[in-house]
Amino acid sequence: MCVMDNTTYTTYTASTTHAPDAVSTTPAAHAPAGADRGATADLARLGRLMGLMTGDEKHSPAATSTLDALWVLYDRVLRVSPATAGDPGRDRFLLSKGHGPMAYYAVLADKGFIEEDVLSGFGGYESPLGHHPDRTLVPGVEIGSGSLGHGLPLAVGTVLGLRAQGLTDPKVWVLIGDAELDEGSNHEALAYAGPAGLEQLHTLVIDNSSASYGRPGGIASRFEAAGWSTSTVDGRDHEALYAAFTAPHPGRPRVVVARVEPKQ
Amino acid sequence: MDTMRDRFIATTSRLLDDDPRLALVLAEISKDGFREALDRHPERAVNVGIREQLLIGVGGGMALTGMRPIMHTFAGFLVERPFEQLKLDFGHQGVHGVLVSAGGSYDWPAGGFTHMSPGDVALMDTLDGWTVQVPGHPDEAETLLRRAAASDESVYVRLSVHANAAAHPVSRSGITTLREGSRGVVVAVGPMLDSVLAAAEGLDVTVLYATTVRPFDGATLRRAVAGSRADVVLVEPYLAGTSTAAVNDALVDRPHRVLGLGIGRGELRRYGSVGEHLAGQGLDPAALRTRIGSFLG
C-alpha cells in the first residue's frame, strides 16, 4: 500500500506494482503482484463484460484506467445496490469523466444494476448505453456526463441538497480525470467545498497523466490548499484504494488521487 | 415603489420560511438583501461566491436530490456565462429549477455592455421546456415568482428595474388583451407596456400584454388576429425579433406580417440612463409610434 495522506510529494513511487511501461492492457493483468486471487477473478469477470461491449479482449486506457477504483468503490465502499438505487439515503457515485464508460457499465452489470445482455448494444441506436452515460436511460447512473467539468459542481449541489434534507449520512462520490481538472468549473467547486466543510463529498481523481500541461505541484495539492483531506495512491492497488476511500476526514471533503500508468 | 428585485428578495425570503423543499443559490449578487434568509436557513440558502458555473451546477445537484432550487444573479452571469450548465445540469439531467435574473438588457446603462444581457431570452429559447417570464411590475413579479416556486417546471423569471407604473392581471396563458382595434396587433412584453400604450394612443390597434413569452401564448394571439388585420408588432425588452418565430408558428396557417422590435445586436457604446438607452434603441414612445405606424401603414 502506498497511501500518502496529506503529504507533500514530488515523485510517485509505486511500492507494490508494475512499472508504467510494463503494463498489459488486459484488465486481469492489472492486478498488482501479490494481489489475492479474488481480485484477479473480479477483474477477469469485468474484463469479459467489457469485451461484450467492445467485441475485443483489449480495452482502451481511458476505459481501464478507472476499472480498479470503480470496482473497489462499488464492491466494498458505496452503500447502494439495485434495490436501493432510488432511496434518498443511498450513497451516490457520479461519473463526471464520461469518456470510456465501459468499465463503469461492466461494474454496473456485475452488480446487477443493468442486464448483461444490453452490453453488446453499446453505442447503438436502440441501446441505453452510450459512449457517454445518460442517467435517464441507465438504472443506477446518477448523472449524464460527457462534457467535462460538470460532475464536481453537481456533486457539491447533491451534498448540499442532501444536507438540507437532514440526510447527513449518505456519501457522494464523483470521479474525474486528471486532464478534466483543466476545466475551471472544477476549481470553482473545489475552492467552495473545502471552506464549506462538505464532509459528505468525495472526489476520486484518476490520474493517467493525460493533461497536456501536467499539474506542476501535483493534483492533491490543489485540493489540499482548499482545505480538503487528500490521499494519493496506486490506482491499481485495491487495498490501497480501499484504505484511502474509507479513511475518516471529519469536517472536510476528501479527494483520493488514484495514479495509473500514463495514457499512451 | 420597490423594484422587482426588492420584491423577489422579500417574497423568496418568506417562501423559504414556508416551503422546506425550496432552496436559494446565490453567487454574491443580492447577498446583502438576502442576509436574513441566509442566516435563518443556512442549509437551504447558500452563497457560493463569484462562481457562476458552480451556481448552476449546485442548483442542478440540489434538484437531483429533490429540492426546488432558485438560482439568482444578473442576467448575463445567470444565462450567458454558465449556459452549458443550464443545458446539461438541468435539461440533460432531466431535473428542474427556477432562474431569477436581475439587470435585464439595460437596467444599468452606466455600467456598460458587460452588465447588459439582451440575448438571454433568445439563448433560453434554444433549450427545451423552459417557461420564460418577463413581468412588468413588482406585483406581477411576485405573482409569477410564487407560481414558479410552487411548480415543478423549469422557469426563468427575468426581472428589471425598468417597470410599468401600474400592475396588470397576470394571465396563466401568458398574454392578456388590453385594447382591441382593427389595423393590427401590438404585443408589448413586460416593462415595454407603458411605452407601447403611449405610442398606440389614438391608433386603431389591438394591444396585447405578455408576461410569459415561453411557451408563447399563440392561442390568445390567434384570437386577437381573428378580429384585426394580421399585422403583428412585437415590442420586447431584449434582443429584437426574439419571439418573431413564435409569432410565425402561431399564425402558420394564415398570411401575416411581423415586425420584431427590441434591443439591437450592435452595441450602442453609450452610458447614461435607462430612458436615454431606450431612446437610443428606438424604443421610446415617439420612436415606437413612428415605427409601428409606418409598419401598419
TrEMBL record, chain B:
Pfam entry (one): Transket_pyr
Upper classification of the organism: Bacteria, Bacillati, Actinomycetota, Actinomycetes, Kitasatosporales
Entry-linked InterPro entries: PDH/Transketolase (IPR051157), THDP-binding (IPR029061), Transketo_C/PFOR_II (IPR009014), Transketolase-like_Pyr-bd (IPR005475), Transketolase_C (IPR033248)
Protein name in the entry: Transketolase C-terminal domain-containing protein
Stretches assigned to the Transketolase-like pyrimidine-binding domain: 2-167
SMART domains: Transket_pyr
Domain of life of the native organism: Bacteria
Matching CDD domains: TPP_PYR_DXS_TK_like
